Amino acid sequence: MLAAAAFGALAGAMMVFPEAAAEAAYQALGLWARAVAPVLGPFMACMLMLSSRTRGGMAARVAMGWLCGSPGGARLMREAGLRGRSASRTAAMTGTMSPMFLIGTVGGWLGDRRLGWVVFLCHVLGALGAGLCIPPGEKAAVSLPAPMPLGAALRESALALLTVALCMMLGCAAAKMAACALPGLAPAFQAALQCALEVTGGVKSIIALQTPFTAPLVCAAVSFGGLSLLAQNAAFWQDSGVGMGRLALLRLFHALLSGALCRAVLLFFP
């Protein structure tokens, strides 16, 4: 009921402010075409080919999940048959953003590739710390997926990229509608709202604020992931008993850890 009310309100706002909604979606699509698709597309296809051929235990799967990003990491974990605390622990450890996006795109937006590496490493360490805070459950027998043909990897990559594009347009349009409905909303609150809805445009908005805490805030934002990314990951975890609410709490804990870690690293190594 709540989701229906939210989407109904968004649709109504877009009818009231059609030009603003279209402009926000156009800007999001341009951002996707310039900074997301060229970086993620080829890397995603490579990771799909590699992850379907990965052999080893859960440690190898978690490491591959970090390389695949979201929702590729959640898709990879779905075949492990995890339940209970084991599922929550692994969901906390994975569900990270693509390293190519963080190092390449976000590093470029921050104006320093080294900052991209700092954000990526703190992001991954925060996910690992969030998972280790959950007691381990029963071990599950890890099933190995069949190797994916190149054509299937390309199709899945294309579908994932189109999904990302639509999520970015929807999130940016929703943030713009909130700004139109509340014209006095401060830029910081607009950026926070956009991060909560769709992380790519939200990260761009955080960087535009030019605060002394930009990198830690970006690290926290990408660790939470935003509503659109949470929904994509939850679709793969729901059969393991990790629903949208629990996943949001895990990602929020991850965001607090990784943001604090990034701040500490930059304090000691400016």
Provide tags for this entry.
270 residues
Describe this structure as you would to a colleague.
With 270 residues, this protein is mainly α. The protein has 13 helices and no strands. It is globular. The N and C termini lie far apart (47 Å). The mean pLDDT is 87.
Number of strands: 0
Relative strand content = under 5%
Largest sheet: none
Whole-angstrom Rg: 18 Å
Which structural class fits the helix and strand makeup? mainly alpha
General shape: globular
What is the percent of helical residues? over 70%
Distance between the termini: 47 Å
- Overall mean pLDDT: 87
Query: So how many helices?
Result: 13
pLDDT < 50 runs, ≥5 residues: none
Helix and strand pattern: HHHHHHHHHHHHH
Break the fold down into its secondary structure elements and pairings.
Layout: H1 2-16, H2 18-51, H3 58-68, H4 72-78, H5 84-93, H6 99-110, H7 113-132, H8 150-181, H9 187-197, H10 199-209, H11 214-224, H12 226-237, H13 244-268
Please give a quick description of this structure.
The protein is an all-alpha fold and 270 residues long.
